[in-house]
Amino acid sequence: MNTRFAAAGSQRWLQVAINRRPELLLGALRRSGAIARGTSITWRSPLEVEGFREYRDGLALAKVDAKLKIPLNSYWPARGPRWDAIGITSQGSPLLVEAKAHIAEAASSGTRASPESRQFIDSSLIKARRYYAPRATADWGNLFYQYANRLAHHYFLKRLNDVPSILVFLYLLNADDMLGPVSEKEWHGAIRLIHAVLGLPSDLRSHDVVDVFLDTRLLQDAV
Fold first, then answer.
1. Which domain holds residue 46?
2. In a domain, 1, yes or no
3. Region class of 19: left (phi > 0), else alpha (psi between -120 and 50), else beta
4. End-to-end CA distance of the chain
5. Residue 101: inside a domain, yes or no?
6. CB 89 within 8 A of CB 158
7. Is residue 3 one of the residues assigned to a domain?
8. How many domains does the chain have?
9. What is the pLDDT along the chain (223 residues), one digit of tens a residue?
C-alpha cells in the first residue's frame, strides 16, 4: 500500500492538507461559506491509512452514507468522476472536492465515452444544465467537461435524491511545482471563463457549489 504523498500538483497538496493540516483546509472551507463556522469535517478520502485511495461511483456514495431514491446507474454510466476528496460534515452532509493546482488542469477536453455511454451522459448533462442555467445552450460534453460532470453529480445527489451535498472546487495558490496561480485573482479569471463557456451564472453558492482557495505555502512544512 502506497503511503507516500503524490509527487506534485493538486493531488499532492490535497493529500498533505487532509492528512497533515486539516485545520487549514477547514478554515478555508469556513471562510468561503462552504460550511458554517461551527461545522467540522470528517474526511473519508484520500486517507494515508488507505494509501490515499480516491473513490468513484457507488464506492464514493458509500463513503458518505448517501441514501438514494434514484440509483446512480440510472443516471450515469460506470466509471464516473473520481473525486479528489470526500468528506462528511458534522451535520451529515456529503462534501465532494475537485481540486486544481494550475489553470491548464481546469481546461479538460470532452468526454471520451463510447457512443452509447455518450448518449446516456448527454441526457444527464442536459438535465443538470437546465437546473443550474435554464437559459444555457452550451454542450456540456465538450470543453470543460470535467467541471460540468462534477456539477451533474452534485445535481444528482442534491436535486434528484434530496441529499444535502456540498460541491467544492478547491483552487490551490502558489503550487510552484506546477507553476500555478499565485493569487485568487488569477483563478477568478479562469473561473469566469469556465462559467461563460458553460452558460453558468457567476455565482453558484445558492446551489451549494463553492469556490475555495488554499495557499500551498502553508503546507510546505508538513511534507
1. 9-222
2. no
3. alpha
4. 19
5. yes
6. no
7. no
8. 1
9. 667 999 999 999 999 999 999 999 999 999 999 999 999 999 999 999 999 999 999 999 999 999 999 999 999 999 999 999 999 999 999 999 999 999 998 887 777 778 888 889 999 999 999 999 999 999 999 999 999 999 999 999 999 999 999 999 999 999 999 999 999 999 999 999 999 999 999 999 999 999 999 999 999 988 8
